Each structure stands twice: as C-alpha cells, then as structure tokens.
Amino acid sequence: MGKLIDKKLLLPFILITACFSLWGFANDITNPMVEAFSRIFNTSVTQATLVQVAFYGGYFAMALPAAFFLRKYDYKWGVLMGLGLYAIGAFLFFPAKATGNFYPFLAAYFIMTCGLSFLETSCNPYILVMGDHSSATRRLNLAQAFNPIGSLSGMFVAMYCIQNQLDPIDKDSRAMLPVNQFEAVKEHDLSVLIGPYLFIGLVILVLFLVIFFMKMPKEDVKESKGGSSASASWGRLLRNREYVCGVIAQFFYVGVQIMCWTFIIQYGKRIFMGEGIAEGEASSMAQKYNIIAMCLFCCSRFICTFLMRFVNAGRLLGILAVAGGALVLGVIFIDGRVGLWCLVCVSACMSLMFPTIYGIALGKVSMEDAKFGAAGLIMSILGGSVLPPLQSLIIDQKTVLGLPAENASFVVPFICFIVVAVYGFVMVKQIRSSN
C-alpha cells in the first residue's frame, strides 16, 4: 500500500479537505430550511420543497460545465470557481431578505449549489491525484471523513441558531395575523435565517484567498489539453465497466443516504408519539437521534479509512452494504425504539460508501477522462431527489401488509443496499488486479 500523503503536499491536502467540510455544512443546514421557509412565508409544504429542487438542481446543472472548465484549466481553478460561486450564493441571502420574497432565496440556493457542484467535481479527483495511486481511495476516504464534521456543524447551526431562534408562532396562527404584524414576524425570522449563511460566506471568502495565493500541486494536464474530444472521453468512460457500474451504485447510495437521514425524524416521531409524548417534544427527540446517527457516520468513516489498509476496498464496501441491508430489515420488522436504533446504526455502514464507490469507479480512468468521469459521478447525486419520493409514496399509504407505512417504506433503502453490495463484491478482483 502506497504512502497516504507526502509531507510536502500536507498543507494543500488540508486546504482541499476543508472544502469537504464546507459542502457538508451546506447540505445539512439546508434540509431543515424546508419547514422554516414554509412557516416564514406561509407557503405549502410542496412550495417549500422547491428549496431542495433548487439545491439538487444546482448540483446536476453544473457538473458537466465544471468538467469542461476543468478540461481547460487545472483543479486549483476549479476549486476557486466552486468557492467563488458558493460565497456569492451565500451573500445573495442578504438582498433576497431585502425583497421579502421567497423566490430570490431559491436563486441564491441554486447559485450556491452550482458552487458545491464545482467543488465536488474538482476536490474529489484532486485528492485522488495528491499522491500514490494505490492509496488514492484510502486518501479520499480520509478527506471525506471531514465531510460529516461539516454536516454535524450544519445540523447544530440549523437547530440552535435558526430553528430555536425563529418566532414560536405556528404556521396556522401566522396566517391569522394582521398584515403588518405578519410582516414584522417575517422580517425577524429572515434576519435570523440569513445570519449563518452570511457568516459562512465570509469563511469561504477567506479560504478562497488562502488557496488563491497558495502554491498548489498541479496534475499532469498536458494530455487533456492537447487530447481527444469530449465525445471520445465519454465513449471511453461508457466502455469502462467499473465506471458505469460505479455511477449506478453511486445513484443508489446517495438515494439510500438521503432516505435514511430524511425519514429518521418521521420514523422516530411516530414511535415517540405512540408512547404518549407530545408532538413537539417527539420531534425534538427524533432530531437528537438524527444527530447521533451523524456522529456514528463521522466516527465510522475514520475507522473504515484505517481498515482499508488491511481490507480490499470492494470487499469492505460489500460487507458494510450487507450489514446496512440487515439493519434496514430490523427497521422494517422491529417496531419501537429497537427499530429506531437499527436505523441510527445504518449510518455507520454508509460512512465509507460515497468515497469508496467514487475511488473504485475512477480507479482505471485515465487523467484525460477523469474530469468528465468526476462529473458523471457528481450527477449521480440526482438519486437523492429521485428515490426519496418513492419512499414517500409508501409512507402515504399509512399501513402496508399490516406494517406501519414508515417501517414498510424502508424496502426502498433495502433494495439500494443490495445494489451497492453487488457492486462492492464484483469489484474485489478488479481492485486486486490494479494494485
């Protein structure tokens, strides 16, 4: 196994790894904003979910343009472009608040996540080339281990700096307020909401300046600058079985991650309310279980990065996918707090999946094609918006085959884990032959 990171690349590695935390923060401060915007603007839940549409839309829309940008320039400029768009989107929350309208916030989210798409398309392959090829997947797992630290920060900021600071008047009562009083409450809540976004915008600006003036390692781009066309690159990628199957596996993995983290609160809330706990307290308790799940996810990623020194990456991926599937069966068939703990523990199994699938998929992709390959893998994040509605359709049925619908709905994540497990075990020989 090659050296994980050379000393001369340690500072650039740390700076790029900081970007992983920043997009983790953005993801997990945004999820609770659906409910917050619904209250602040008195919109329907469907309208408020446009926040997620704008969020995932930015990821999907910008992945390919980012690949073309990286084909012309190097990874450093891709990172700077991502940080720049991220900061602009965050700062746009201030003029959005000044309009007092919901839709400018959607534009700010879209621009912000265009930056996140640039960052993920640039940072993941950048980490892979920062050292020995044989340790690339392990190196990416280490960098990705700091992503859930950002996610945890986003959760805490969303809960304690936004949700707990909003005016406690519920949505129905707000609708009955006189116009001037409603506007005063909205003004207060928007001032609370934009604060963390403006702060993170300043943090991003500082990181942008540090990376701009820092001498960063350059990948060998001679081949890609003078190389074949984009269509030729896509042709080679589509003939690469590890890559194509990796994109499919990543689609299902991102779907299972979003489903397990989105519906853990709904699952726990139902259990606690069934124990006679009031709705507000039940929701708060369920959110704490969600934070425990993220803590497990974070710790497990560091543990898995260590284990990959001794265990084939594909085999470890397959084993954890099987374990995740087994825990999901517990979620389906064991009701009560035991089932909830099974759902919490699923996060420990998911921890290594994104970077490991990513590293395996690009393992045999040439430098010339890696930038388009990275774009395809980032576009597979679309699984996070396609698969959860399927689970929602089951939840809406109330009961399925005698099971509570929340429990039965986890058959969708179970199928996703099967796909990931198959990919991991099939790739074991390919990884062994490439090392």
List keywords for this structure.
Growth Hormone, Chain: A; globular; mainly alpha; 24 helices; 1% strand; two-stranded antiparallel sheet; 435 residues; 2 domains
Detailed description of the structure:
- This protein has 435 residues and is an all-alpha fold.
- It folds into 2 domains: 1-214, MFS general substrate transporter like domains (Growth Hormone, Chain: A, Up-down Bundle); 230-435, Growth Hormone, Chain: A (Up-down Bundle), CATH 1.20.1250.20.
- 79% of the residues lie in helices and 1% in strands.
- It has 24 helices and 2 strands.
- It has a two-stranded antiparallel sheet.
- Strand 1 (399-400) and strand 2 (403-404) form a beta hairpin.
- The longest helix has 35 residues, at 179-213.
- The termini are close together.
- Residues 221-226 have low confidence and may be disordered.
Query: In percent, how helical is the residue content?
Result: over 70%
Measure the end-to-end span. Answer: 8 Å
**What is the fold-level CATH name, i.e. the topology of the largest domain?**
Growth Hormone, Chain: A
Tell the overall outline.
globular
What topology does this entry show?
Elements: H1 10-30, H2 33-40, H3 45-48, H4 50-72, H5 75-91, H6 93-99, H7 103-128, H8 136-144, H9 147-162, H10 171-175, H11 179-213, H12 222-225, H13 230-238, H14 241-274, H15 279-307, H16 313-333, H17 337-350, H18 353-361, H19 367-379, H20 383-386, H21 388-395, E1 399-400, E2 403-404, H22 405-408, H23 411-426, H24 428-434
Antiparallel strand pairs: 1-2
